[in-house]
Amino acid sequence: MNINEGLARYGDLSFASAFGIYVLAMVLSVFDLAGSRTKKLEMQTVVGAHTRNSTPQSAPGTPGKVADRAHRTMAERCGRTAVLLCAIGFGFNVAAIILRGLATERWPLGNLYEYALFLCAVTVGGWLLVMTKYPVRALTTFMLVPVIILLFVAASAMYAAPAPLIPALRSYWIAIHVTVIVTASGILLLASLTSLLFLIAQKGPDSKYPLVRKLSSLLPTSDILDRVSYRMTIIGFPLYSVGVICGAIWAEAAWGRFWGWDPKETVSFIAWVIYAAYLHSRATSGWAKTRAAWINIAALCVMLFNLFFINFVISGLHSYAGLN
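RESULT FIELD:
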């Protein structure tokens, strides 16, 4: 199989472009986050004014809306620009994946570098969808930090030159099993990060640490964060379950058994159990949302352990990271 070096080079350029755009978006989103406290106070003032004044608001497209656009704060303008840059970076991120696949004429999930690219694309794409449903734009900073870190690690420690799949991965199951798993992982990553922010919003005002108290004042209400986390987990967990089942079917076809307690299989199962415990705790009366959030964060730690420690340190039947 010949490698198209031109497409591979454009794929690497798309990766670099996505990384740079994400960094710029994160910088701008920091200003949006910093201005979120002021926006909270302004919204409270507006709500109070509306309770005293029953004058109807201007209809969409009227001068009132134009005036509102003209009076946007610098922080809000930075936040909107950050979202636009996230969408552009997402496009380059996806382009890098597609070009890698076209250059190698295979499904672009054959090593850990490509897995990281796909995971970041799912995370950013998922966040763009979340922002259309919930007022969480100011939290873009927290979403982009792990994405940028993972892309940096991917370029510096995970990079693998475009190459054909190794024989063990030459199966249609790679397009099913790995794609479903990485999609679920990106969604669950967002869910767990939001649970962490929920805890800060819930407990931060009473924290003895000034930085935590300050951060909690910048976050949306804990109720919004809890809803985002819960609903993202509801979406991600069934996908993750399907991915694990597909992996077992592929293992039976490739190795003659559905389950062999390989390190990656074992840790993936542990993560599945913890996410199931989180959903069970949310459905059980008497369980505090705070304790459930800690379970979700524990699941994130297991996922990160599986991504980094298992792939970099431990050898097993799933050692296809392209790091050796």
